[in-house]
Write a structure and sequence with these properties.
Strands 1, 2, 3, 4, 5, 6, 7, 8, 9 and 10 form a ten-stranded mixed beta sheet that branches. The chain has about 325 residues and is of the alpha/beta class. The protein folds into two domains: about 25-125 and about 250-320, Bordetella uptake gene, domain 1 (D-Maltodextrin-Binding Protein, domain 2, 3-Layer(aba) Sandwich), CATH 3.40.190; about 125-240, D-Maltodextrin-Binding Protein, domain 2 (3-Layer(aba) Sandwich), CATH 3.40.190. It is built from 13 helices and ten strands. About 50% of the residues lie in helices and about 20% in strands. The protein has helices spanning about 1-25, 45-60, 75-80, 95-105, 110-115, 140-150, 165-175, 190-195, 205-215, 240, 265-275, 280-290, 300-320, and strands at about 35, 65-70, 90-95, 115-130, 155-160, 180-185, 200-205, 220-225, 250-260, 290-295. α7 crosses α13.
């Protein structure tokens, strides 16, 4: 009898413990959450991390604090997240830079799909190829002809190795058969400033941040990078229709967390991010900026990441780009 009584007591204690753990997860979050942005301030990831953090704070009732940790092609900030406790209180605002890095960098202190768990995608937007007004090219064919007439004389800026801006440039070089020099910067804001000053002749940039500068006449738009024309630059052709059939490169953003984070926490974050990104007012705001909401379960997002890693591995191999 004593043994059976002990069994009941132990069973009851385990049930209480499990229930308290489930309750703790259900109550998530109970303290501030960090969103680490592995890029400098002012770029799309930073802008949308702050937008998302503000909305998540309102929906989940705790502060979502944005922390910029740029450097090493997003590796510094990403490593910090990968090594954080798997409790849902440290999130990563990531992009296709991360899927490119899986094949671009020969050595990394983490593996994306081993050390981090997919939470949710956020949005995607086209890139836009722009040149400084001093460049004597007004369309894609003229720019390609200019580059071919002066191999190695033209430069293009990016926010660093492996970023969507860099890989869009490498894909452009490979498909156009031209020799233009990659000039990496510490962030997209710095790269943008270089082009505006005329220190670097051109760059691919997120249309969400570059479109106002095009409209102000500070740079000249050559083409956009998506499959169809952007609604905010309808007069600017895609690279595909302007002379490079099949060209397609966008920038997308998503959220990940350290591997091992409890599924109920991941599901809570996924649900709230999806509600925010697909709410009518947010869709309206993002449409004006040229951003399109994305919607996937954590499992679907994981498969999307696998496919994107494979896609960019082919581009990296084709372009010959590598970083030790």
């Amino acid at each position: 009898m004593a043994f059976h009584r002990l069994q009941r007591i132990v069973g009851f204690a385990l049930a209480v413990f499990a229930a308290s753990g489930a309750l703790a997860q259900a109550a998530y979050p109970t303290k501030p959450v960090r969103i680490i942005v592995p890029y400098s301030a002012g770029g799309p990831a930073d802008i949308y991390a702050r937008f998302l953090g503000d909305r998540l704070q309102k929906s989940l009732g705790q502060p979502f604090v944005i922390e910029n940790r740029p450097g090493a092609g997003a590796i510094i900030g990403t490593e910090a997240v990968a090594k954080s406790p798997a409790d849902g209180y440290t999130l990563l605002m990531m992009s296709n830079t991360h899927t490119v890095n899986e094949s671009l960098f020969t050595k990394k202190p983490y593996s994306l799909l081993r050390d981090l768990a997919p939470v949710a995608p956020v949005n995607y937007s086209d890139l836009i190829l722009v040149v400084h007004p001093s460049v004597p090219a007004h369309n894609l064919k003229e720019l390609i002809a200019l580059a071919k007439s002066k191999p190695g004389a033209l430069n293009y800026a990016s926010s660093g190795p492996g970023t969507p801006y860099h890989m869009a440039g490498e894909l452009f070089k490979a498909m156009a058969g031209i020799d233009v020099v990659h000039v990496p910067h510490k962030g997209s804001a710095e790269a943008r400033t270089s082009v505006l000053a005329g220190n670097v002749q051109m760059m691919f940039d997120a249309i969400t941040t570059m479109a106002p500068l095009v409209q102000a006449g500070k740079v000249r738009a050559i083409a956009t990078s998506g499959k169809t024309r952007s609604s905010i630059t309808p007069d600017v052709p895609t690279l595909s229709e302007a002379g490079l059939p099949g060209y397609d490169a966008v920038i997308w953003l998503g959220v990940m967390t350290p591997a091992g984070t409890p599924k109920p926490i991941i599901d809570t974050l996924n649900s709230d991010i999806e509600k925010i990104a697909n709410s009518p007012d947010v869709k309206e705001i993002w449409t004006r900026q040229g951003a399109v909401p994305m919607r996937m379960t954590p499992e679907e997002f994981g498969k999307f990441l696998e496919q994107d890693i494979q896609k960019w591995a082919k581009v990296v191999k084709f372009s010959g780009a590598t970083v030790d």
